[in-house]
Amino acid sequence: MQERLKELQAEALEKVSAAIDLKELNDIRVAYLGKKGPITEVLKGMGKLSAEERPKMGALANEVRDQITQGITAKQVQLEEAQIQAKLAAETIDVTLPGRPVHTGNHHSLTRVVEEIEDLFIGMGYTVAEGPEVEKDYYNFEALNLPKGHPARDMQDSFYITEDILLRTHTSPVQARTMEKHEGKGPVKIICPGKVFRRDNDDATHSHQFMQIEGLVIDENIRMTDLKGTLEVFAKKMFGEEREIRLRPSFFPFTEPSVEMDISCMICSGKGCNVCKTTGWIEILGAGMVHPNVLEMAGFDSKKYTGFAFGMGAERIAMLKYGVDDIRHFYTNDSRFLKQFSIHE
Ligand code: PHE
Predict the structure, then answer these.
(1) 311: CA distance to ligand 1 center in Å?
(2) Which residue's alpha carbon is nearest to atom 7 within ligand 1?
(3) pLDDT tens per residue, range 225-271
(4) What percentage of the chain has pLDDT greater than the value 90?
(5) CATH of region 109-338, choose from 3.30.420.40, 1.10.150.170, 3.30.930.10, 3.90.180.10
(6) Whose CA is nearest to atom 9 of ligand 1?
(7) Which of 186, 284, 330, 344 has the least CB density, counted as fewest CB within 10 Å?
(8) Which residue ranges does the chain devote to CATH 3.30.930.10?
(9) CB 255 less than 6 A from any atom of ligand 1
(10) CB 312 within 8 A of CB 261
């Protein structure tokens, strides 16, 4: 019996050490230490032993049991540890892998230019004013000294919705509306950005929809020199301190006198290139002193108040600033174009 027990111990421990996983180990435990196991079976024969031998055999059986239990526990710890190590090895994160880029949106190049211009004028005390894109003929034309039948209406071939309602052809109606709200009291100092619409055939430099930014200042003693100084600050801030400006006589029905402003070419610095068409100057905007008729129609006393206004196309400014050669790029939304203006690389 003693031998049989020793034999069982050796056999069990050998199997334990050969076990490759926890399930196998548990099967061994059940097989050897369970109620139906061989040790229990051996102990059933204890009745046949003498009273002297019985306790000895009992002690030996317990020891065999303990040995096997200990062997199983030690192996279990070992297998569990191995399992954890295997799991850790399998789940290793390779921190050297390059990250996947997250695509972020960015402001449209036109929005950036418009906001830059807004900020510049806000810095000079202007406020931003907005108005409807679908406008009354009165504000778009009449209040700006362009009565019905005025030939200058043709300068801005329009999209009419009804006889009296149209898509605004410029942002000047916002000036007319703002002046009216002021009920004849100055000062007025606004900048109005917005979409405008004209019946144009789209090509590299024309778009039937584009953005304008206009400025208007009305107060006592506003002079042409105030306009010139303001435009010079604008030109230098937008296109570089070394820019020079020049004003050429022009015509707008709502300003008198009217001018067009050129800046010295930033590509060739005035020497002559294809951007400035070899003149050394680039046309940027239209401006002038607010026509007395426009002031009077909006309820301002033109003897007391004077003012200046200027207006420019945002696309033209953006094209010159970023070297864009086709106005349609702003509207066709090709992501290769749009991404070039991203601040996130
Ligand atoms: N409204 C003019 C245009 O659309 C621009 C302009 C604005 C000219 C203000 C003078 C003063 O062409």
Answers:
(1) 4
(2) 311
(3) 999 999 999 999 999 999 999 999 999 999 999 999 999 988 888 78
(4) 52
(5) 3.30.930.10
(6) 310
(7) 344
(8) 109-338
(9) yes
(10) no
